Amino acid sequence: MRVSGKVAVVTGASRGVGLATAKRLQAEGASVIITDIHAERGAASAEQLGVEFFQQDVSSAEGWQSLAQSLRERHGRLDILVNNAAILQAASVVDESVEGWQQMMAVNAGSVFLAIKTLLPLMAEQDGGSIINLSSSSALMGMPQFCAYTAAKAAVRSLTMSTAVLCKQQGRGVRCNSIHPDGINTDMVREIAASLPAADKQQYQRTAPFICQPEDIANTILFLASDESKHINGAAIAIDNTATIHPPYL
């Protein structure tokens, strides 16, 4: 029971990494609240796990305020915040629309800002807590076909570092780290892959070893959420089987 007695919020948790994370945290003793913009799917997932569900548009400041109020009223605390909610779209800087860029920034980066701004004070009140931000391996390298996504995930990394230093300066025991997966075997990734030009067999064979399962991400989040990682603050943890350090000729 590595997070027994802790209260956790996991955003975008109706499926994929968020759902796997909620399941892992609950199994280890946490009281879990999952949030998602999709009400029906989110409620069904929450019922399946036996956890709380809060419908939320993570790009809305008002939604975050409502969640904060609910946490105070129902639990009086927050120990673990997992900023997982994200969208994925493919386009180069030439092809991306202004609206597409703005939406990607609002959901994938702006939501993390709103989450920390709104909920960090609640976490600091009990002198401890862990914020885990889902970034990406793409934040650490150039991927021209995903210009807005990579930029948003790079912003998440920078915000993580700024928050981690602030938390250390405040001395209230809250930590903030980011994790950087490569490809994950989720519905969202499969959906975007289906819209791209088909990769040839050789290319697939080269990328397949870098793809992980949602449970691999959930296990790392559990470690960062637990007191086992109490001296890890501001780290960027790659979950990519060397993808971000892989020489192109190997």
UniProtKB/TrEMBL annotation:
It holds the Pfam family adh_short_C2. It comes from the Bacteria. One of its GO terms (molecular function) is oxidoreductase activity. InterPro entries: KR_dom (IPR057326), NAD(P)-bd_dom_sf (IPR036291), Sc_DH/Rdtase_CS (IPR020904), SDR_fam (IPR002347). Keywords: Oxidoreductase. Residues 6-180 form the Ketoreductase domain. Belongs to the short-chain dehydrogenases/reductases (SDR) family. This is SDR family oxidoreductase. It comes from Gammaproteobacteria bacterium LSUCC0057. The lineage of its organism: Bacteria, Pseudomonadati, Pseudomonadota, Gammaproteobacteria, Cellvibrionales.
